[in-house]
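User: For a benchmark we're assembling, each entry needs the component sequences followed by a predicted structure for the full assembly. Here are entry 17's components. Please fill in the structure.
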Amino acid sequence: MATQLVKGNTAAVIGALYAGCDCYFGYPITPASEILQEASKYFPQVGRKFVQAESEEAAINMVYGAASAGHRVMTASSGPGLSLKQEGISYLAGSELPCVIIDIMRAGPGLGNIGPEQSDYSQVVKGGGHGNYKNIVLAPNSVQEMCDMVITGFDLAFKYRNPVCILADGVLGQMVESIQFPEKAVQPVIDTTWAVNGTAATRENLVTSIFLDFDLLEQFNYKLQEKYATIKEHEVDYEDYMASDASIILVSYGISSRICRSAVDQARKEGIKVGLFRPRTLFPFPEKELRAIADSRECTFVSVEMSNGQMQEDVRLAIGCTRPVELVNRMGGNLITLDQIMGRLREISAREEY
Amino acid sequence: MAEKMAEKIIGRPDGLYAEFPRKGGAAPTATHYCPGCGHGIIHKLIGEALADLGIQDRTVMISPVGCAVFAYYYFDCGNLQVAHGRAPAVGTGVSRAEDNAVVIAYQGDGDLASIGLNETIQAANRGEKMAIFFVNNTVYGMTGGQMAPTTLIGEKTITCPEGRDPRFAGYPLHMCEILNNLKAPVFIERISISDISHIRKARKAIRKALEIQRDGKGYAFVEVLSTCPTNLRQDSEQSTRFVNEEMEKEFPLGNFRDLSAETQPLLRGESDFSRDSIDRLFNLETESSPDAVHDPTFKEVHVKAAGFGGQGVLSMGLTLAHSGCNAQRFVSWYPSYGPEQRGGTSNCSVVISGESIGSPVVHTPDVLVAMNRPSLEKFAGDVKEGGIILYDSTIGACDIPANVRGISVPAVKIAGETGSEKAANTVMLGVMLTLGVTGLSEDNFREAIAETFSGKQKLISLNLNVLEAAVAWAKKNI
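Assistant: Structure for entry 17:
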């Protein structure tokens, strides 16, 4: 097994190469630019296709083109760029096209700054563009997962013919850790049952998202909802770190969850029964699993995220508001600190007699 | 001959479906276009060329947003329907993915010259392998007759009810002329389908654009002056006259460019998916580190390095991370990032651990390396009790917090005397090594330096010399 020290953004490109992705289209934006740069370096060396697009919109529409042709295609951006891509993502979802989109979140709104934040949660997890659609959303919290989740992402994208977003943040994109390289390289095969790739086998096919007839469009919308229900049924993924007996459950994803992990260790040393519940899929959100915890005992949930509580709402919904769901957060490019979490944990622990 | 051609043009070409089930409704062979609309004629001309050139299997037709949104009802080939104005970007994606595909984007004036102008120009400028058929009828059709970028001066539409006034709405855009300023396009021509004699010329240009695609030679742009009797409130004679007498005056017909004879086919080659090829990209055989080993007895070390951009604090951090990796520790490195940081101060966090690492961001370092005064002042207060601050001697006298050990290191001086002042960062590594604060061995550091400066033998030996000099200094002075 081969191990190297690698930057998070580079790991995403490594994942793409082993996942059989052969088209990359993107536009520069800090802190996601290394994904574009690394793709421009590595893709052509193995005959894969790379274009630096003229805009985020053009990039996502190039993705639409290559995805229509049945190829494995990826793009990456950060907050403001993701906002621009939303039109295209809606069309991809509406045309049921598979692709992987990486969001290395930075601080907003507007131009904000290039520091890390997790404030694209709503626009990525809830759909983001127009229409009743969902992206499958994976949330890595290590450089290894930046690589591995791109591979999983392509599998899910093609399994469900749906866009997959990798929701990461500036820290995950910029940090360096060692990763174990994938041991398999995917040999992609074009699915000629739906793709349009300029061959006799696909001449009959049509990729579209337009349904002029209201009832037909409604029917299609229901079909999409059924697909999402299937995804919810089968693809939920999460990590439970000492949450099984905890009275305070930190719910956190991405880089914040790494800090939470340190907080759990620290709190346990102080005798506070804390656990971490880390969703690895944000859509589907691990609703049942959180609900089971809430139903099993008196406990307090704390959503730990670098946003104004965008995920906190989903935790509340998941547990049916049966337990308190607090928020520990930072915004503006600031990271949550261990001390900040510990302060809240001690406060809750002193207040609640679990 | 003329009669024969007219007859052929008016008949249904094989490039169009015999019936249009995708359209539905009671008239399976009728199009959805209005009487007198130019789209029908243009569809037939394209359909005829697709069949005659034998490229239907290879063709991917891109329907735009506009009246031709349903072009896929009619063309017997692979079909995509895409977002408003984005056809050239989508076409780029298809063409790059599939070298052999014949890509056609069929677009109206609002789609191509207004909302999609950027995509239009950029795809042309890249010389993408696609034929663009630009249907210019000076008006938005599908949305009900609004002003288009090509609306003539004085022409009335529902959003310029008094006629287009250039003082408020600018001038008609001349797409052929704009694109003709670019180097990459192979073929650019403006045609009209207003009457039989024009249709005959149009047929040739359309065929030529598709021959260029058949041969994979690059970008072809055909602007078609067309009619919209419905929205321009014209009868068929008026619409013909409008195109011939008013549109042609603003948009002169003719070939702007045909480089097809001297252009070679552009082939982009096959993708290589083999694992060996990817492994080689990353030199996995020669450049792999050992995996980290779980060791709860190892005390986690948090290091922060800070200085001006260019003082090598980021690469020092990386070398330290490499050293940890070589010692089979878990490591993480996290920089203050972005070119926006240039010229200012930069810093990085390094964590070395015997277990998988929680936060990679160091808020309270065990060791702070400060290469300049602002960094020292900014981070000194964060250092843990019992921690160490290494700072360059050039900073001079400074306040070190209580219960923290401050060490003034003549890093720039030692590095300068040993080879290059630029290696001052390596001096700090040597001091860290000697102090034993990282739990790493000299070999770990030496290997890491070789990795950091991979392939640059001169720099490797220089930095190894500096490391030795630093160790010698530290042993003597600390």
